[in-house]
Design brief:
heterodimer, A: 293 residues, alpha+beta, Uridine Diphospho-n-acetylenolpyruvylglucosamine Reductase, domain 2, Uridine Diphospho-n-acetylenolpyruvylglucosamine Reductase, domain 3, Enolase-like, domain 1, 3 domains, five-stranded antiparallel β-sheet, 12 helices, 14 strands, globular, B: 165 residues, Ubiquitin-like (UB roll), DNA polymerase, domain 1, five-stranded mixed β-sheet, 5 strands
Chain lengths: 293, 165
């Protein structure tokens, strides 16, 4: 189908974009990569009165080393993140996840700000920002504020973005060099949305897990952290087959997946356990003893 | 009707100046306004890959872009691949390896393969499969398409080696 009619406005600054959004009284939409917005327009699921094109805002597409953190501009294309040396070095789990984001032609256009603002519960970037404790910087005509990823994602396709507010950047704390990590996903076809996905970052101290973060998606309305399983893995027990089995049981018990066209709830619950086991073992084998540990 | 937008755009090396309705998709701009019907329209929501073109050198779905946002852009469609010297090496490989049946997906496959081989000239078979995974062929002729892209990669590699000598 074809999009419904709308006015088109190209802006050259964040100020102009947020002013136009505010002036549109909730009828405006920002156009970044358009890889989620355009299908919704073509299906006429959305009928904005004005499309505000932010692609010509300078200095909104960047990857910056800020010492403790990596900051990524909202207009940064997936392909730039996928091929970034800085991300490969400091956020290797994110680097690996990027290869699972849709297809080459989509990654050439799609942006991190667009993916996070769209908040598809089966998209990789919202989950990775939960996993990595990302902070999101939002701007409106009146103010700037910073939210954690867990505050930002409210429900499927729903974020804490207010009317007239836009995401301008996201920052990720660098992973410790000794951290082990893994990204495990099952999708029906390469590049499809995940049926289930688990990503892990962990640090080890001797035969124990000292820190662990587990992100998962496809098993609830939003991407989530597996907090109970995280607590279990860091409860001081050595990481052996018993603990891995307990972690698998715990992550399965903690989710309430939905049944849909693509998979049943039971299958998704089964998958999240299988993926968690693979991810824990891979992350563990990659982790090196922390020097201070 | 919403106010039209004036754009200057280069398609296959030729410059155009057009006033377009904001909601006009690039795919329809190419096919209807410019008569370049080599770009095929399949699903119109970014899934099938038939309408893939190069935008400033990178592959993109033309059904997910507005003509209005492309002022100043350089587009290449399947019509731009062949030169007076003959078929593009990727086109020649598709011909040699019988990599098309009904031909509907072919323009998108060709453009995607061109971008893939530019970004990963030494693509492995797995990378070729992964690179083409966003393009659907409903004749299911994937094996020959992968073979053709493999052959094109090898042909482009020896071409580059020769030009380096």
């Amino acid at each position: 189908m074809k999009p419904p009619p709308f006015e088109y406005l190209s802006v050259d600054s964040v100020q102009a974009a947020t002013a136009a959004l505010a002036a549109a009284n909730g009828e405006g939409k920002l156009l970044a990569g358009g890889q989620s917005l355009m299908p919704m327009l073509n299906f006429r699921l959305l009928r904005p009165s004005v499309l505000i094109d932010i692609n010509r805002i300078p200095d909104l597409a960047y990857l910056k080393d800020e010492g403790e953190r990596i900051r990524i501009g909202a207009l940064t294309r997936h392909r730039m993140i996928e091929t970034s040396e800085l991300v490969a070095r400091q956020l290797p789990v994110l680097s690996e996840a990027m290869g699972h984001v849709a297809h080459l032609a989509i990654r050439n256009r799609g942006t991190i700000g667009g993916s996070l603002s769209h908040a598809d519960p089966a998209a990789e970037l919202p989950m990775m920002s939960m996993l990595l404790d990302a902070e999101l910087e939002l701007a409106s005509a009146k103010r700037r504020r910073t939210l954690s990823a867990s505050e930002f994602f409210v429900a499927a396709l729903t974020t804490d973005l207010a009317e007239g507010e836009m995401l301008v950047s996201v920052s990720f704390p660098k992973m410790p060099p000794s951290a082990g990590w893994a990204f495990e996903e099952v999708a029906r076809r390469s590049g499809d949305f995940a049926l289930a996905c688990v990503a892990i970052c962990l640090e080890r101290s001797g035969d124990r897990v000292s820190h662990v973060r587990i992100g998962m998606m496809g098993v609830g309305d939003t991407p989530m952290r597996a907090t109970e399983t995280e607590a279990l893995l860091t409860s001081g027990r050595p990481l052996d087959d018993h603990l891995v089995a307990a972690a698998v049981g715990s992550i399965r018990a903690s989710v309430e997946p939905n049944t849909d066209l693509h998979a049943s709830a039971d299958y998704r619950r089964h998958l999240v356990g299988v993926l968690a086991e693979r991810a824990i073992r891979r992350a563990w084998s990659r982790a090196t003893e922390a020097r201070h540990g | 009707m919403a106010k039209s937008v004036s754009i200057s755009i280069t398609v296959n090396g030729r410059a155009y100046r057009h006033d377009v309705e904001p909601r006009l998709l690039l795919s329809d701009f190419l096919r209807i306004e410019l008569g370049l019907t080599g770009t095929h329209v399949g699903c119109e929501h970014g899934v099938c890959g038939a309408c893939t073109v190069l935008v400033n050198g990178d592959s993109a779905r033309s059904c997910l872009l507005l003509a209005a946002q492309l002022d100043g852009a350089e587009i290449m469609t399947v019509e731009g691949l062949a030169t007076s010297g003959g078929l593009h090496p990727v086109q020649k490989a598709f011909h040699d390896h019988h990599a098309l049946q009904c031909g509907f997906c072919t323009p998108g496959m060709l453009i995607t393969a061109v971008d893939l081989l530019k970004k990963s000239p030494l693509a492995s078979d797995e990378e070729i499969r992964e690179g083409l995974s966003g393009n659907l062929c409903r004749c299911t002729g994937y094996e020959n398409i992968v073979r053709a892209v493999r052959a094109a990669a090898d042909a482009l590699k020896s071409e580059n080696q020769e030009s380096a000598l």
